[in-house]
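Entry 14. Structure prediction run on the chain below.
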Amino acid sequence: MFVRTDRLLLRPGWIEDAPELVRAIGDEAIARNTARIPWPYTLAHAEWYLGRQQDAHAPNCLVFARTSGKPRLIGNVAISPDGDGHELGYWFARAHWGLGYATEAASALVRAARGSLRIERIHSGHFVDNPASGRVLRKLGFQPTGRTIRRHSVARGHDVDCLLYSDAAQTPCEEPAMRCLEAA
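Output returned:
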């Protein structure tokens, strides 16, 4: 899936993106805020990730800042199917935190997934020590469920409390057993 906003280009990752992906994730603070990204993140990790078969019903996009020259890889956003609907996950390089890119990219991908893939049930979450991600989710219209679960973080090597969010369109009785942010 390809999506474009005024500032961003979202597209599938290609094996040629591996070195730039390693540079973008090259910060332990990024990996520790996700469930699946290992730390340290190596070229072998990036090549494995980018070489995986893509599921047409699970949009997984690298996020590039559109510039006057070559676009710069700044993050990742994905919507992955699971037993409870679909889970939204994202990460962004530290230099791009606080600039609205996460909200812009996630909003664009959610709109595109709902429109072209007819994905309706979307949930997410964030580790308790990453409140900035909760602010992004609320800006996207997600609501805290009031539930906290323990979720394993590969980068940290242990379980961490994770706050759960549901799509505002779901009623409380529809809340899935959600998981934390996972991309890459």
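The chain has five helices and eight strands.
Filed with the rest of this week's runs.
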